[in-house]
Structure formats: structure tokens, C-alpha cells
UniProtKB/TrEMBL annotation:
InterPro entries: FAD-linked_oxidoreductase-like. It comes from the Bacteria. Keywords: Oxidoreductase. This is Methylenetetrahydrofolate reductase. It comes from Halodurantibacterium flavum.
Length: 306
């Protein structure tokens, strides 16, 4: 296990805006990747919100077991509920009961899901919200797409995406749950800033948790970016791929996050509230990067090598 945290006081190139921006960050895992982590307490500060991605075909038992383990180790598990892989209302009610009873789950990310055809009666996160089965959850997060989503808007616009966000804002206005938008990962600050400002101008006030790709090999990021439909900011990776001197170096989100952090400092009312990390190069590498750049440390006793 790599050493984390003790380098924090040394000459690490972070800034006050970035340190502030990293407060309250969250991170995403899958059951199969979580199973490879011996102890999350060696990597993440206590209380960190950990999203659990639910890919089609993952048994609900594995999802619930991962959530329960994270709760035991002192974290706030937030499982995905992809509408299109849920067979019916009874299955949804069963999933919720298991999460609440076995893992004390208090929050959920509701999304359509990345499969083309619904398995049952649900095809959108709005339908999940309308069931009323999430009443009593402290947090309900929904998906955001700063660069659009061609599954929803095949014409390349964001008309349907924007309409859905307006519906979700209205739901938030009449709900007791704390709601936020958790987005796909991006690589370029200015388009994200413009997107967030446009949402605010259209009356969508849900706080935004911006998706950030953790440090990873360039080839790995390109593969995930293409698979996940990342749009215009993909050019940032493609430009780097043409630079032979950088091709073999890990890509880090420093420039992207510094841009957002500086804008947040200059505009305190800016709609992006937190960073949400996708550890595409491994959760250890991402946790290490966050600590090096001013993110919360973990207990010193846990930094020792295994």
C-alpha cells in the first residue's frame, strides 16, 4: 500500500482555492473494485460519500454487501439506481428495503442507466422519483451532462436533458430531500463553467457535483471517455495524445480543477458545490492525488505500509 498523507506538509503544488474546492469531495466504486480494497480507511477520510455504481448484471446482493461494508468502515454509501435495469416496482421496493435495512443507506443516485432498452416498467429517473419509494431518504442525486447526452438528445442539442432538469428542480422544490446533480467526468473547465452558469440562468438551482477523472494513463482515459460519450472536452485528451513527450505520463485533473476552483473563488455563488471523482486509474492513485493537492487527510496511523 502506498504511503498517503505525510507528504502533505512538504512542497506540494496546491493552492487555497483548490483546497477549498476539494472539501466534501465524493468518489465512485464498483463492487468488484471495492472488493480489491483491503481497508477503505487507509485511503479515504471518515464520512466520505462513496457512490456505488450498479452495472447491468451486477447482483443486488453484491451491491448491498458493498454498501454495508462501506457503512461499517465509516463511510456514507450512495448506490446507483439505474431505472432501465430495474424489473418493476416490487423489485425497486425490495432493493430499497435491503439497502435501508442492511446498510443504513440514506442517499441514492437516480439515473436512467446506460442500457438501450428497459428491463421493465422504468426508463427514467423521473419515474423512480414519482414512485414515492424514496420518501425518507436524506439525499437524492440525479445525473448531469455538461456536454450533452446523445442517448437522450440524438440531435446533439440538450433540449430534453434541460427539460428533465427543470422537472427535477421542481421536484426538489416540493421535496424534503437534499438534491444535487452529479455529472459525467469532463476535462475542460471553461465549457463546464458556461454550462453551470446557463443552468442557473434557466432557474435550475440544484447544486452541481462535477465529475472528475482521477489520475490515469492517457490510453485508459481515452477508452473510458469514448465509451461514456464524453463530448467536446475529449479534444483535451486527443491533443495530449499527439504530444509524444506526454504520451506515457499519467494524465492528472490538476488544470481542470484549478480552473474551476479559481472561478469558484472569484464567484462564490457559482453552482458547482463539490468534486466527484471517478478513480479510472485506481482508487489508491486518486486518493493519493487528492491528499497531495490539499484534500482531507486520513488518520496517520493508517498510512503505514501493509
Amino acid at each position: 500500500m502506498a504511503l498517503f498523507g505525510f507528504r502533505r506538509a512538504e512542497a506540494v503544488a496546491d493552492s487555497a482555492p483548490l483546497r477549498d474546492f476539494l472539501k466534501g469531495y465524493s468518489i465512485e466504486v464498483m463492487p468488484r473494485t471495492a472488493a480489491k480494497v483491503e481497508d477503505f480507511r487507509k485511503l479515504l477520510p471518515a464520512g466520505t460519500r462513496v457512490y456505488i455504481a450498479h452495472l447491468d448484471g451486477t447482483p443486488i446482493e453484491e451491491m448491498v454487501a458493498t454498501a454495508a461494508r462501506l457503512r461499517r468502515e465509516g463511510y456514507d454509501p450512495m448506490p446507483h439506481f439505474p431505472a432501465r435495469i430495474i424489473p418493476d416496482r416490487a423489485a425497486l421496493a425490495d432493493w430499497i428495503a435491503r439497502y435501508r435495512g442492511e446498510a443504513d443507506v440514506r442517499g441514492a443516485l437516480l439515473l436512467a442507466g446506460g442500457v438501450p432498452s428497459p428491463a421493465g416498467e422504468f426508463h427514467s429517473s423521473m419515474q423512480l422519483m414519482e414512485t414515492g419509494l424514496f420518501d425518507g431518504f436524506e439525499r437524492l442525486h440525479v445525473a448531469g451532462h455538461p456536454e450533452g447526452n446523445r442517448d437522450i438528445d440524438p440531435d446533439g442539442s440538450d433540449r430534453m436533458v434541460a427539460e428533465a432538469l427543470r422537472w427535477k428542480q421542481a421536484f426538489a422544490d416540493r421535496s424534503d430531500a437534499r438534491m444535487a446533480i452529479a455529472t459525467q467526468f469532463c476535462f475542460e473547465a471553461q465549457p463546464v463553467i458556461a454550462w453551470a452558469d446557463r443552468l442557473a440562468a434557466e432557474g435550475i438551482r440544484l447544486p452541481i457535483h462535477i465529475g472528475v477523472a482521477g489520475p490515469a494513463k492517457l490510453q485508459t482515459l481515452l477508452k473510458f471517455a469514448i465509451a461514456c460519450g464524453v463530448g467536446p472536452s475529449l479534444s483535451v485528451l486527443q491533443k495530449r495524445a499527439r504530444d509524444v513527450t506526454k504520451l506515457l505520463l499519467p494524465f492528472e485533473p490538476t488544470e481542470f480543477l484549478n480552473g474551476l476552483a479559481a472561478h469558484k473563488q472569484a464567484h462564490p455563488g457559482f453552482g458547482i458545490e463539490a468534486a466527484h471523482f471517478f478513480p479510472l486509474g485506481g482508487i489508491g492513485a486518486t486518493a493519493d492525488w487528492i491528499i497531495e493537492h490539499g484534500g482531507s487527510d486520513v488518520a496517520p496511523a493508517l498510512h503505514e505500509k501493509d
